[in-house]
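During the practical work, I worked with a single protein chain and the tokens that describe its fold, as given directly below.
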Amino acid sequence: MNDSRILAQLKAVWCRVKNQQALEEISKEQIKNWAVEKGLRVKSAEEREVGAFRSTPCIVLTLEEGDACFPRFKAGDDPAWIAASEAAEREAALWKKVEWFSSFWVNRQQINPLLKDVENCSQKRAVEMFDYHTSTIYSLAFQAVCIAQVIPGSHSLKEFSPLVREAFLAFYSGYRASSISALMPIVEGSLSRIVASYGSGLTIGAKIDRAIDRAIQTAARMHYGNVWIPDEFTKLNYLFAQDERVFVFETFRRWLHNSFFMNTGEYDGVTWLNRHLFAHGASADWQQSANFSRLILALATMGVVESWHDESNAVKLFFPNMNEDGTLLWEQGRFNINAQILLKVMEEKRYHGSGKLVPELPTDDGVLLRAALLSEDCMKDLVRPLRDAGWSVAVSEPDEEAIFMRVVASCKDISFGVALLYSCATDNSIYRELAVESLAILYRGAPYKQAQYTQGVDVHVGPVLGWQPPVAPQ
């Protein structure tokens, strides 16, 4: 319905309607008569709920040129809309709290309980909970489908598709920080390509608004099914609570503005997923592993924004089922994970044999692997022989750095402590500290410059495999 004369007539009818004291009491016949008085050729009038997702009660006039909808309330006056709008803003505030946005491809049954859980905790705790739970949602398979099946369909992302694929494989090969850093600039690159037709002088903020505003305009038109409705019912302020697509686009816009592209001095979040902090080296905290899956979803969402901006429909709203391309990439990712486990174990043995800890990486300080190995050897080579010798054994957890563990053996009125070190090559101060409460200090593996590390220690020190525990009293 593009005839300017008809549009002017419809606007005049709506102006008369909304100036009435009680819009909900106006009859469909009355509105039909007012339209006829304006020269419109009305075929019929009916009461109808209009709109996808949350609908708007309207009187719909069927004209020769198409349908025209006259809502039963002024925009913002409907009590049901007011309640929905307040609920939408509360949810948007929770998304802001976890520094993220609502997604097209996450089931509401999965995300609603999580948003409720983060409502009454600190932002730091909320992000930790969110990242933990979404690790089962933004899974390896989910990422593989995004990379192999969604991102290549986007014109603005197609050029970067091989780079995203390589980042995925590198991430699951242990090079996590490098993978995250490779994806950070692509968000801006995709955005710039989407709005390239507007010229090169736009700021980042203007680029975001141009892309999202156009996508929301498309969503607004589809929300009502290409019928005429007063302009105020097609605006973001109204549709934010009515249309889930608009809600996603707007929360994505807010994340881009208030988190990812926030100026360095103004950013106060906890994920540190910020383009400027990364570019200017102001912080290294952007290297958190959870930021990789966030970036994959952000890029896929950028593809949807492009599709709705230019109405190309290149990237669908519905998440695709995994096809052969997605399956192959998923399997390759799993293979890299398994290979990485073997490489980590081999790397640990090489460094341990030289009396060293594996050097810390930005996303892996090595503590988990050390703790696992230390705990396993403690149970196998220390606790089991003590138990076999007749002792009851209390076992502590590894210390924060997974350098040592303590056990206490007891039988009747006798008890003694034994410490197990990750490596013989442990700082002398730790030996001295453990010697205070230990009958023996043992270590994994072979001796490595033992005399040098144990100066001044007057308890037994040696390999755990060479120590024979005393027999418990009968």
